[in-house]
């Protein structure tokens, strides 16, 4: 069976986009979306839907696009996922819906991500009015953290009719969608629009509030009938090698928070500075590493490289991000591992000493374990080092929450109904799983909302 | 959302006093906590020490340094955000005789807050406030005199109060046999390092503010990482006050200089716009 190739996604030309923070893909036009939707064979038993962590009715979403019923398509998606413009852009579709699309076996899968983003963008651009929340229940639920897990949980709980208050430590809601993922991948006005929807349906968002500092956890428990913890995994990890104390060493978190949340790329119109040298090395090869590398490039670095101890085929990053990074000239230095960061004698980074690696037996992640090759050390000249080694739960919240059980990494332990060791306190997202994806957090936030509903109804 | 400034006054030619409405911070503030300020929507998140918190307001001492502080001094009557209390408060208990010392703007604010809390906890509190010369000395109404048992105003050139830096005067006091159970201090980082070296010889626990650049100030970015006994800690959530005898001072002294060149650009632009 000959399958038509995907309708290509128009993108900002490389030469242009490496100098700005605007979205790389332009997104489908109506005609392009319809043409792409027409490739769908409308399987009787759609595997794509089973591959979706929030079980969007993908088949019908595509059918409605095909029938030019964009608004209906949007409303259908929004029932299962309150944040389609975001997930359409940041989900690892190749590991989910698109990965199990039947067409993937004989050609290219349907571009489900771009179609999802299309309907969401279409609705936003056409000011489609959101469905109202009709039911109202007296119970109050506190949602701690306004990242993907908290947003999804709050949206769902509000739709069930509960009174929802969401608390956020930072001065802007959105969690990683705002402080972590760069504008060129996820434009911030799109995130804001999807968060505005929550306020429209009556979710109260309280910013600049840290639980444990402004309100104690016990007070919160007295004031609310249930609590959802979507506190994420926001704390950076460092390699612990020599030279990390030097100026010019960033955690990817700091680098991205400066650039995204604080808009350092608009310095000095915005006040927060960021220092990017000429030669930047990013340690790690996940999505965050790609984001940091591409951000550094846009901030004017002359040479940006990814330093990875495996080969890129084992990178956990989305295919699209790796592809975009490659197109933009990011250098992939594979099979090397940093040993120490070299001092320029004035307290700044001058380079990084690395050791060559080879791939050995498979480890617990199913990927070959990188093994250092003795005596193969050499120095790469750099003036900025960004460590993107993954994140762990933030101990700020945990240290102020006595009685909450966690594992030794600080990951909150929950039962099969997502309830923590404290009755009426539920958890979801990276706070309970370590570090995962936006969509997994959204899915858990949504599931937790259902368990919270069951819990609240059982207490009546 | 914005926070109204209720009082601004000069402390000396470089430093000024700001009092701002911040009920959420004022309600929970404890000595050792700090706030994150954003002066304008496009502003930086900057950490600031608190002198006192009462009636839903907090008071701070701020130095006219870069764009943010100068624009605040000259052109603003409100803050976009005042976020806190952040950080870990000091342990407020009865230590016995406590020395609280400072030689710079934020340190003087901390001095006041710590003296007040520890005096209320039943300690005998000795406070040192050091300024370079008499021209730099703050107005008497913000001295720590009213919140301590024994007050020492000192100037380095001896033009007002006792002559010398608090480190030397404290050492003299210890030499003379004064029994001090613990020292709290804030201000100039190099001086805090030196203070630690001195008190270590006398075996006196010394807790100091290790002021670092912060961004989120909630444990997420790692900008304020300091090394305590070789372990990485974050000034924003584990501090900002640490045991002076355990701090890796070389790293702590280096990091605040990371953005100096950028800060000059921002200030220049603000001056040109007539706002600083």
Give me some keywords for this one.
heterodimer, A: 460 residues, alpha/beta, Fumarate Reductase Iron-sulfur Protein, Chain B, domain 2, FAD/NAD(P)-binding domain, 3 domains, globular, B: 276 residues, Elongation Factor Tu (Ef-tu), domain 3, Rossmann fold, 2 domains, 7-stranded mixed β-sheet, 30% strand
End-to-end distance of chain B:
24 Å
State which percent range the strand residues of chain B make up: 25-35%
CATH homologous superfamily of the largest domain in chain A - what is it? FAD/NAD(P)-binding domain
The overall strand count of chain B is 17
User: Would you identify the regions of chain A where 5 or more consecutive residues have pLDDT less than 50?
Assistant: none
**What is the global morphology of chain A?**
globular
Biggest sheet: strand arrangement of chain B: 12-11-10-9-13-14-17
| Strand segment tally of chain A | 16
- The level-1 CATH class of the largest domain in chain A: Alpha Beta
Main sheet overview of chain A: 5 strands, parallel
Radius of gyration of chain B: 18 Å
Strand percentage of chain A: 15-25%
CATH superfamily of the largest domain in chain B: Nucleotide-binding domain of ferredoxin-NADP reductase (FNR) module
Structural class of chain A: alpha/beta
Mean pLDDT of chain B: 94
Give the count of structural domains of chain A.
Answer: 3
Question: Could you say what the CATH topology of the largest domain in chain B is called?
Answer: Rossmann fold
